[in-house]
Prior knowledge:
single chain, 259 residues, Alpha-Beta Plaits, 4-stranded antiparallel sheet, 3-stranded antiparallel sheet, 6 helices, 15 strands
Amino acid sequence: MDRVLCSPIELGSGVAHCAHGMLPVPAPATLELLKGAPVKLGAVPFEATTPTGAALLAAFVDEFVARPMLRVQRVGYGIGHRDGPIPNVLRVLLGEASDEEGEQNELCVLECNIDDMNPECYDHVLERLFAAGAHDVWLVPVLMKKNRPGMLLGVLCAPWLAPVLTDVLLIETTTLGVRRHGVARTALKREVQRIATRYGEVAVKIAYHHGRPLRGKPEYEDCKRLALDSGVPIHRIYEAARQVLAERDLSLEPVEWLP
């Protein structure tokens, strides 16, 4: 699957001449467009990212990463005309994600303990967190002070999204504080394929290890839809998908490790 990655964005410093006069860098439109993205200030004494550039990044970038793991295939450069203390150069790399040891990246975990919120609200909170870009969200029952039952609410996300998701937790729950720490994750490369069963097509997530298909898992929403359309129990849809995957040597169960 093609993806566009971008390093943290340098905004520059100083002032910019706009239709409304001189404004401090970055321009208001630039900041508005780059909400949630990681930015840097001060590397050059002028505007380094214009609203037009910010709009392009906001529209095309899938993820902001500081150190992408790539096998580089081609390199391209765009050179600006304004001189400064650092090269006025845009460098673009075309490559493939390294899958020798799986996809490795730095992520962030947000946590908070809650013991005074209506449990009906958790579904809404989890939906808001996923909609805001969380990779995963979980709830763990815990015992808090004075033996009060509570919930540990955890969120896994990209570091640059941590401020946005922290705001969701502080606004949408009753917590008074959110903990944050960085984690390193190694993840299998994945792609979604569609397979044909006797009940209809099902999307299947295929996981790869060292470049080879490891296992596949049907997507729940597709299985649910086919079960309702066909009037059969959902486990029959899973069984039909399992048979197709078995024919392709893609079991739903982890395969035995081979040296």
